[in-house]
Amino acid sequence: MTKQVRAARTRQALIRSAAIVFEQHGYAQARLALISSGAGVSTGALHFHFENKAAVAQAVVAEASHGLLAVSSSIRRRTDTALQTLVDTSHALVDLLARDPVTRAGFRLSCDGVRGDEPGLPAQWQRCVGELLDEAAAAGTLAEDVSRTDATAATVAATTGFEVLGRYESEWLSAPTPTGFWRLLLPRLATPETLPLLDPSGTAAAAEAVATGPDGHRTSGVGAAAPI
Amino acid sequence: MTKQVRAARTRQALIRSAAIVFEQHGYAQARLALISSGAGVSTGALHFHFENKAAVAQAVVAEASHGLLAVSSSIRRRTDTALQTLVDTSHALVDLLARDPVTRAGFRLSCDGVRGDEPGLPAQWQRCVGELLDEAAAAGTLAEDVSRTDATAATVAATTGFEVLGRYESEWLSAPTPTGFWRLLLPRLATPETLPLLDPSGTAAAAEAVATGPDGHRTSGVGAAAPI
User: Fold this and answer.
1) What are the beta bridge partners of residue A190?
2) Locate the HTH tetR-type domain: which residues (chains A, B) (predicted)?
């Protein structure tokens, strides 16, 4: 293993450990010594990668945003319509929020005001939803009387709510919740011709993207494209 | 002013001060001395009313829940349909989240897992939305192919999202946000005959309920009904 690969792995281990420590103790109470020991390295190694706690938090947020972007792009390649990509990506995001500490911490830190050079996770999701609705409109699959701004806001706000409410009631972050949301919303969003083609419970593309996503996710710090 | 009235006022002042301190410092960091001094009383006076910090937090949550219930009942008396009451109550809740520290702290403490004997604010809101949708269904104003469970979940999750996203971007908690949500959702929820009767931007009842609500809210600890 080259030095560069080792350094990248350590960085990813630190990000993952930080996500877990931020979740357990909160950002204010999180100690760097706990983050480094969780990654199996010294605090010196942590400081080689990150200047301070804020830099670690920003890296967690950036990692979570990149993960969402990778998952969304992967789903887009495997689905026929932008609206199905939107449904599938929301399912993948809910699944990641339920199971992946980096995505969850990235979301919470963004909501708690941690700001880096890159957009936080809700902002990244908002951009993604907006672009997919633009694409649906351009393809003529979005109902004409729907405001894309309204639909983007409702989708982003509801997903944010699922995460917050899911902290203490896990069914908010299980598949039936986004399925119910799309069962309600799709008949309003899609043209009558497109609606029968859409599955509110998501297609196999969502599960596949999440299954391959964490790998792409963990290796994204290496600077190489995800190999799968 | 009788002793009883004075005690009730002190209790309300403590709840309000606690809401502000919880918001500024977080629950874990909030000091009781800061809460009592914010209410202009001694820590002894605080301990006369509340056993510990958890009891203060539960009182904030209960106060916020009662406030929402009072506002919703007041709106129901002034609107013609259950769906308009739902729209108006969501506008009132968003307005309270933007302006009233007790509602905001009650919401956040509930989301952060503070549990008392009474339901937290999102749970109270969920019950309220569910009941109004049941009423709309019974009155034949709800579209027949809409699942009330789905509509309740989407409304509660989106409102929760507005609060979280509004912490750093205030437009999430301004009137255009719930208006956009209902502009999107009402054509799906309401029967074609009911839709033209509904105003997604809310009626005067919402603003009136919030204007009189905080009074009812502040005096609710006295055990008397709101006089207005």
Assistant:
1) A142
2) 8-68
- Predicted confidence at residue A8, as pLDDT, reads 93
Decide: A106 and A48 in contact? Cβ < 8 Å. Answer: no
- For the stretch B1-12, pLDDT in tens is 788 899 999 999
Q: Kindly give, in sequence order, each residue whose CB lies less than 8 Å from that of residue A222, ignoring residues fewer than 6 positions away.
A: A4, A5, A8
The answer to whether the CB of B114 falls within 8 A of the CB of B58 is yes
B161, B184, B187 ranked by CB distance to A156: nearest = B161
> In chain A, what are the domains?
62-220 (1.10.357.10)
ipTM of the complex: 0.90
Residues 169-228 of B with CB under 8 A from A: 172, 177, 180-181, 183-185, 187-188
Q: Does B167 touch chain A (CB under 8 A)?
A: yes
Q: What is the pLDDT of residues A36-91, one digit of tens each?
A: 999 999 999 999 999 999 999 999 999 999 999 999 999 999 999 999 999 999 99
Q: Which residues of B touch A109 (CB under 8 A)?
A: none
Q: What proportions of chain B, in percent to the nearest 5, are helix, strand and coil?
A: 75, 0, 25
* Structure token digits, residue B28: 């874990």
CA distance A177 to B160: 15
Contact B72, B85 (CB under 8 A): yes
- The residues in B 50-109 lying below 8 A from A, measured between CB atoms, are none
Give the position of tokens 């609710």.
B220
User: What pairs with residue A109 in β-bridges?
Assistant: none
Alpha-carbon torsion (A86, A88, A89, A94), positive or negative: positive
Contact A111 B151 (CB under 8 A): no
Pair A56, A50: CB distance under 8 Å: yes
Round the CA-based radius of gyration of chain B to a whole number and report it.
18
Q: Scanning every residue of chain A, which has its alpha carbon at the shortest distance from the alpha carbon of B182?
A: A150
Yes or no, beta carbons of B167 and A29 under 8 Å apart: no
Min Cα separation B129/chain A (Å) = 15
